[in-house]
TrEMBL record:
<dbReference type="InterPro" id="IPR008972">
    <property type="entry name" value="Cupredoxin"/>
</dbReference>
<dbReference type="Pfam" id="PF02790">
    <property type="entry name" value="COX2_TM"/>
</dbReference>
<keyword id="KW-0812">Transmembrane</keyword>
<feature type="domain" description="Cytochrome oxidase subunit II copper A binding">
    <location>
        <begin position="92"/>
        <end position="218"/>
    </location>
</feature>
<dbReference type="GO" id="GO:0042773">
    <property type="term" value="P:ATP synthesis coupled electron transport"/>
</dbReference>
<dbReference type="GO" id="GO:0005507">
    <property type="term" value="F:copper ion binding"/>
</dbReference>
<keyword id="KW-0472">Membrane</keyword>
<keyword id="KW-0679">Respiratory chain</keyword>
<dbReference type="GO" id="GO:0004129">
    <property type="term" value="F:cytochrome-c oxidase activity"/>
</dbReference>
<dbReference type="InterPro" id="IPR034210">
    <property type="entry name" value="CcO_II_C"/>
</dbReference>
<dbReference type="InterPro" id="IPR014222">
    <property type="entry name" value="Cyt_c_oxidase_su2"/>
</dbReference>
<dbReference type="InterPro" id="IPR002429">
    <property type="entry name" value="CcO_II-like_C"/>
</dbReference>
<protein>
    <recommendedName>
        <fullName>Cytochrome c oxidase subunit 2</fullName>
    </recommendedName>
</protein>
<keyword id="KW-0999">Mitochondrion inner membrane</keyword>
<feature type="transmembrane region" description="Helical">
    <location>
        <begin position="60"/>
        <end position="85"/>
    </location>
</feature>
<dbReference type="InterPro" id="IPR036257">
    <property type="entry name" value="Cyt_c_oxidase_su2_TM_sf"/>
</dbReference>
<dbReference type="GO" id="GO:0005743">
    <property type="term" value="C:mitochondrial inner membrane"/>
</dbReference>
Amino acid sequence: MATWKTLLLQDSSSPLMEQLTFFHDHTLLILVIITILVSQMLISMLFNKFTHRFLLEGQLIEMIWTILPAIILIMIALPSLRLLYILDEIYNPMITVKAIGHQWYWSYEYSDYKKLEFDSYMIPSNELKPFNFRLLDVDNRMVIPFNSQIRIIVTSTDVIHSWTIPSLGVKIDGTPGRLNQSNFNINRTGLFYGQCSEICGANHSFMPIVIESISTNF
């Protein structure tokens, strides 16, 4: 969960989030190198009054600054395409959960079990226990086993919502009349917090998401 002093991404709790973090670091490294090189060239041109005669009409330098950006884009595109393929792939899920967005709460249905559905509302500030988090805790958590492949199906009954858990690397839009799906695998037990990430009305910031990951060995 993010705190007031968090500067970077949240600690990953799923293999997908680990891959997203690696891709973020990979892309950021390329951007830092480009920024340093461009800054060095700008500073050099700013304080240097001389003109490099080979830069006035140089086919070699034109070839370099045409080919080099193409290579850099390929270095970014290939890991990105691989990651997109991994994110879209649905492996044999152990449990399928349907999340339905409402103004302004979530409903959950466990498709593998009969009559297992419930609503999840944010706990009001005047009902919080000492161990609850303000604006983040809910009365009914979504409970799933850890180390299991989970398929999440998201939709909405009114306006567009977005079911998001940052530490799992999952963000799915809930659109009325459509079913969007994704999968994830939580690799540790605990509580994982998220919020609706699509502005959906006056109480948009008051529809949190809480997943409780538990062990299957009772």
